[in-house]
From TrEMBL:
Residue span, JmjC domain: 1-94
A Pfam family assignment: Cupin_8
Occurrences of domain EF-hand (ranges): 166-201
GO terms of molecular function: calcium ion binding
Protein name per the record: Hypp4511 protein
């Protein structure tokens, strides 16, 4: 595991978006002639035995190697804008909670061969929308607002930030998924109340997967 601040020394792929980043280096056999700055990077390692778990701090770079047959689970926590701790004092923290009762974002479904990995955290997507409303002092989130965010954050730098009709049609398609009442706008409260599945659909439409998974979506099986 490596803290995020050392990213400039890890020969990372050019990835402007959040989510699944990766390095061009062979992590099992780092070429110190080609990447001498790696010698300056502090790192931590751990060996997990059956039943163990490990907490990886937010945005830490990490690589996992399994030996032999194994089954592992990764749980990524949501970056909520606000945390409601009103029931913390009375909650029974020793009570067992099954994973089936935990709200998850990107998961396998029966029959899936490829995991939904490499997409933006859907709560991050929600926060981007809410931040835009707050920064611009807006009381309505409209397709026009979404088009600005799409142009600024989703298009390549080489593309003109003035959206053409093809891009606007795409924006309207995304907004249609969000605007269930077809009013033509969403309030901040409605954005906060959007369910996870709707946000996942929007994320799929706006930001395709990237990184090693995204580059091999058509040919890679995750078993």
């Amino acid at each position: 595991m490596i803290p995020n601040k050392y990213g400039d020394k890890l020969d990372l792929a050019d990835n402007k978006k959040s989510g699944s980043g990766f390095t061009h280096m062979n992590v099992d056999k780092v070429d110190l002639v080609k990447n001498p700055e790696v010698l300056e990077v502090p790192w931590t390692w751990a060996t997990l035995q059956p039943g163990d778990c490990i907490f990886i701090p937010s945005r830490y770079f990490h690589q996992v190697r399994s030996y032999g047959r194994s089954v592992a689970a990764t749980i990524m926590w949501d970056p909520f804008r606000e945390f409601n701790d009103s029931d913390c004092a009375t909650r029974d923290i020793d009570k067992y909670t099954a994973l089936s009762d935990v709200r998850l974002q990107w998961t396998y479904k029966k029959g899936d061969k490829v995991i939904d990995m490499g997409y933006m955290n859907v709560e991050t997507m929600r926060n981007i929308f809410l931040d835009e409303m707050e920064d611009e002092e807006l009381d309505k989130f409209t397709p026009e607002v979404l088009s600005i965010l799409y142009a600024h954050n989703m298009l390549d730098e080489e593309e003109d930030e003035q959206l053409g009709e093809e891009h606007m049609e795409y924006v309207r398609k995304v907004f249609f998924r969000m605007d269930k009442d077809q009013k033509g706008y969403l309030t901040g409260e409605e954005l906060r109340g959007l369910d996870i599945e709707t946000l996942k659909l929007v994320t799929h439409l706006i930001e395709p997967a990237y990184g090693p998974i995204g580059e091999n979506m058509g040919s890679r099986d995750e078993l």
